[in-house]
Amino acid sequence: MPLGNTLDVAVIGGGPGGLYAAALLARQGHRVQVWERNAPDDTFGFGVVLSDETLGGIERADTDVYEALGAEFVRWDDIDIVHRGRLHTSGGHGFAALGRRRLLHVLHARCTALGVTLRFRTPAPPADALAASHDLVVAADGVHSATRQSAAEHFRPTLTSGRCRYIWLAADFAFDAFRFEIAETEHGVMQLHAYPYAPDASTVIVEMREEVWRAAGLDLCDEAESADRCAKAFSEALRGRPLRGNRSAWTGFRTVVNERWSHGNTVLLGDAAHTAHFSIGSGTKLAVEDALALAEAVAAEPDVPAALAAYEAARRPAVASTQRAAAASMRWFEELAGYVDQPDRQFAFNLLTRSRRVTHGNLRLRDERFTRAVERDFGCPDDRTPPMFTPLTLRGLTLRNRVVVSPMDMYSAADGDGLPGDFHLVHLGARALGGAGLVMTEMVCVSPQGRITPGCTGLYTDAQAAAWRRIADFVHTSAPGTALGVQLGHSGRKGSTRLMWEGMDDPLPEGNWPVAAASPLPYRPGVSQVPRALDRRDLAGIRADFAAAAARAADCGFDLLELHCAHGYLLSGFLSPLANHREDAYGGPLENRLRFPLEVFDAVREVWPGDRPMTVRLSATDWAPGGTTAEDAVRIAAAFAAHGADAIDVSTGQVVPDEAPEFGRSYQTPYADRIRNALGVPVIAVGAISSWDDVNSLLLAGRADLCALGRPHLYDPHWTLHAAADQEYAGPAAPWPAPYRAGSRKPPTGKG
């Protein structure tokens, strides 16, 4: 039906999202009915937080609702974080909240005024029946949506459970700010999330890992006893006052994702379509914004199918971004026990930036006093020095800043002889001149059979060593203060393939060399060469190859050596249970799978100068069922640290071709974060870190000690110097080479 005509609209669910969609559609002149199985005042939870952005959308769409809500809001700017008895307050955040029941009353009144038929205590007819008798069906029936379930083959939902249990409670007084507090009990860590929603009331959420919940016996408590136990756990925060429930029960958070949000003339809205963890306060916000977008699409498009397509296209990117942030926040709280030993102010900064939406830069704008204090604790020499330009010492090497040019294979050695040539001199030299504290080579192969492609460089001949010495001499002479690191590796089962731009991981059409690995498992079954399983004699030879390459690297003048145990190459293949099916002492349990990589590390460390640091790059997850897990990665990192690794370079994946990475901004950094805070070992974070603000944030939060960036340095070899200029930093950690000083200020742009 053309949307110039009046539509018959059925709304399933009388929560905030469904009611607001009903009001907006009725305001456009459509006939709207709402079915809600509960009574008008029945609601779960207590307070609702809305952002200024959401309120702006409400104001533009319906000033009556905006003004009614505005009269009810409690507003505050501060976040209080209590860590082991110490309170830290960060200001400038801007929150608005009101009671959930009061929000429903406002929306009930608005719907009634606009002629919406509200049916309470009335389960909705089946969605397919409503779809047959109405032009549009809006399914706002929550996280347990019957509509979504009845047409699961069309919506294709994925529901993922978190690792914590939580309960919604309330206190009969208003907190001064949004408050986070932890209780370290004999059973484990519990956390409190609390905020005011009325002049005399606050929402209080208590959350903890499932195993802590069970150990504390809370799984056996009813609502009243749960409220009493939680009040005692956080008696200081509550000033000895009680908590109360509202049909409150312990539950686990479920993340809902749907491949499609509409089917025919039925559309999902709010929690039925997507959920975001409460720790970023987005459930009601997302539902209200869905309602705004749906109403806009209905008003703008010629028919219902076009409107539903436009609604989904408009909302999906924003929802996906929110869900990524919510997932990061949820996981942070799931791993809270790993952060409680951080210094209290760093802990507070870490909590504030946990979702990666709040960064060092915008936190400094919100509360410069608090952020400056965190910087001083971190060791920034003065208020003019950003965290990324604070030096770091590993053994006898002091890096002038925390930026690393990540190892990036260039596949540009000529004639298959493994010799680095003029390209490598210019490539690495340019990045050394660009200001990074540490510039890493690509994976340099330890033998001809250990190459990935014919274009890979090596360190298995004296000629190669001479070529690398030329590059090291240039870096140390022309970019003094820049450290040059070499990454040594062996391709394993991923060798004898074409250059990346000719077909990544595709076998060579001719001139193949035999490949070897932990087990005779091809990387791409039916495509890749089947590797030969290495025997003990082979292993001894490869250990010797690594040691010989390391000795040459030391003579070349490299400042740091990294052992490549990631990305499915030989040593990584020993570590991963998906690539290592051996039944001898080098296979089976993790302790056995670690044996050969540790033997190689020890052989290299023995010949590598004692005052020069060694790092190890790991794939902290295989992104595949049955593969290396985050827990395994901590154990692997601990083993290398015990053998003398000075830092762990934490990457992920590329071990099996059918991996399913969770791509996104800084998506690999939680793995570095976990290793660092579990072990206290320095880590290098990698993976879609693209801005200097991200770097500063990761460092200050204690999630990384160094940040490695690859693609940004391909786009801009002077990325570090430009980051310094953008932050108005001109200190010793980012000196411009003398011939380039005239370009240290950004050129003026042309007139617009």
Automatic annotation (TrEMBL):
Q: What SUPFAM superfamilies is this protein classified in?
A: FAD/NAD(P)-binding domain (SSF51905), FMN-linked oxidoreductases (SSF51395)
Q: Which InterPro entries match?
A: Aldolase_TIM, FAD-bd, FAD/NAD-bd_sf, OxRdtase_FMN_N, YqjM-like
Q: Which Pfam families match?
A: FAD_binding_3, NAD_binding_8, Oxidored_FMN
Q: Which domain of life is it from?
A: Bacteria
Which residues does UniProt assign to the signal peptide?
Answer: none
Report domain NADH:flavin oxidoreductase/NADH oxidase N-terminal positions. 388-724
GO MF term list? FAD binding; FMN binding; NADP binding; NADPH dehydrogenase activity
Q: Which CDD domains match?
A: OYE_YqiM_FMN (cd02932)
Please state every residue range assigned to the domain named FAD-binding.
135-322
What is this protein identified as?
A: Bifunctional salicylyl-CoA 5-hydroxylase/oxidoreductase
Q: Record the organism.
A: Streptomyces globosus
